[in-house]
Amino acid sequence: MTAPQDIRTIEIAEAEAGQRLDRVLGIHIAELSRARLQALIKQGHVTGARGTIEEPGLRVKQGERYVVAVPPPVPAQPQAEYTSLSIVHEDGDLIVVDKPAGMVVHPAPGHAGGTLVNALIAHCGESLSGIGGVRRPGIVHRLDKDTSGLLVVAKSDVAHQGLSEQFAAHGSDGRLTRRYVALVWGTPDRPRGAIDAPIARSRHNRTRMAISQGPTSRRAVTQYALMEVFRDETGVPIASLIELELETGRTHQIRVHLAHIGHPVLGDPVYGSGFKTSARRLNEKAQAALAALDRQALHAAGLGFEHPVTGKRLSFESALPADFAALLEALRGAVVPKAGGKRSPLRKARSE
Prior knowledge:
By secondary structure, the chain is an alpha+beta fold. The protein folds into three domains: 6-72, RNA-binding S4 domain (Structural Genomics Hypothetical 15.5 Kd Protein In mrcA-pckA Intergenic Region, Chain A); 75-168, Pseudouridine synthase (2-Layer Sandwich); 177-305 and 318-351, 2-Layer Sandwich (Pseudouridine synthase). It has eight helices and 18 strands. The chain has helices at 21-28, 34-42, 116-124, 157-169, 253-260, 284-293, 322-332, 345-351; strands at residues 6-11, 46-48, 51-53, 65-70, 74-75, 87-90, 94-99, 134-135, 138-139, 148-154, 177-185, 192-196, 199-201, 209-211, 221-231, 237-246, 298-306, 313-317. The strands form four sheets. Strands 6, 7, 9, 10, 11, 12, 15, 16, 17 and 18 form a ten-stranded mixed β-sheet that branches. It has a four-stranded antiparallel β-sheet with strand order 1-4-2-3. A two-stranded parallel sheet has the order 5-8. Helix 1 (21-28) crosses helix 2 and helix 6 (284-293) runs antiparallel to helix 7 (322-332). It is elongated, with a radius of gyration of 24 Å. The N and C termini lie far apart (61 Å). Mean pLDDT is 88; it is low at 334-341.
């Protein structure tokens, strides 16, 4: 049985006269994004005394009545797949998950199933109110397949719009923070700094990104801070634990930037392949742990944002996954301290 349309009747108040129709509808139907309302108008779902309205920019008059017929969300194209998820937070508008390494976020060629989106469709079910008219989770940012950690996903249209605005600002307005930890080869020259280098898709290999000054390049900035240094048997620094925060969100940004300054992520098969021989300088336990990791040692450890509906500040932390923690333990030769036991160098720098 087909679900009924949601019928809304809006009467234009004196203060709203002269404004755009899509703007006024957005005030009265706050759970739908402006883009969604514009689409409904263009598709003929809004009627008034003048008949069917198909122009979002129509200027409204006091006392006019408009009827909006909101169709039920259509089923998502990706199929629901019941997969165990680590849920950090969930409410009616969004969900925060701790993504394991090896899971692709969104279906793509070669990864039609087994993705986070497939799992979220199954987990959220009817609580997905429809992103752009489709009952699907709203992906506002991604993590690479083999990067673990925190990721927020919208469940409603209004949350999708609000989160998208925060991620578009990349934290410049103070609402969004994204903190990563990584194990890298070598040690940066300075204990903290910023990598400011534009990124574009590689002209030689379309699956890779590269530092580029070309017309398609986009500005990319990554802040880093040194947390620990690990040395080989001769006392020479061989690897480091660093903390990173993003000022922009480009594809493979952290991995490309770290490789650019000569300190690629341990285990990175794409941007750190030239450092494979460096593994021979690791102690036997660390070599075994790196082989067992079988991915880049990069983890999205912290995520903070403003709730797009309530306005409440939300902040989440993720402990290191077992494979990453095992490699870190092997490098330092000691038991890994509990998560949160060490103050963030980047946060300390900002507070001073």
